[in-house]
Amino acid sequence: MKPTDESSSSEPPAETAPPAVAHGAEPSTDLAPVVGGNLRRLRTRRSLSLERLAQLSGVSRAMLGQIELGQSAPTINVLWKIARALEVTFSALISTRTQSGALVLRSNESKLLTSKDRSFSSRALFPFDEPRRVEFYELRLAAGCVEDADAHPPGTSENLVVTAGTLEIDVAGDTHRLEAGDSILFEADTPHAYRNPGKVESVMYLVMTYAEEIG
Description:
The protein is built from 5 helices and 10 strands. It is of the alpha+beta class.
């Protein structure tokens, strides 16, 4: 998830993305109002002003205000920055707080987030009814593209399996190449990157485990 400079007092339109569209499906549930409500609740719970959260996250006060009002659908990178600053899981920001019990997650209702250029997408494959230590995602990376990821909270690990295409992962100074069927487990509390050197889309499934139950 490529870092961008978002410390200025205003944001160019390109820093936000419209609601993503699932592969071969109707537009996914609009996350802007969901994220806005969760952000406001979590920020207030921690007694943080918009200005202070902007300082902690590197996301401008103007953009945070737009997100809280449901006027902007933030990119994956922006959400990660906010989640880390608030010390919550990624899912805490996109949770609809559904009731507990059996829940079927329909493909065309998936919460799908993309990078700014739409080359990278992340689809949540788990419910958001309670705080958790483990999250499950489907990731897709277009051919020839790279997605840089900021460090996650201390103790966070990623267990990823490639199901289609080829993937190279840069982590801790090493590059690991994975083909379909290969998997990798690594500590994700340092910056890392996903690279697709092939000519077809890479499809991956990711289990992210946090050191502590947060959210």
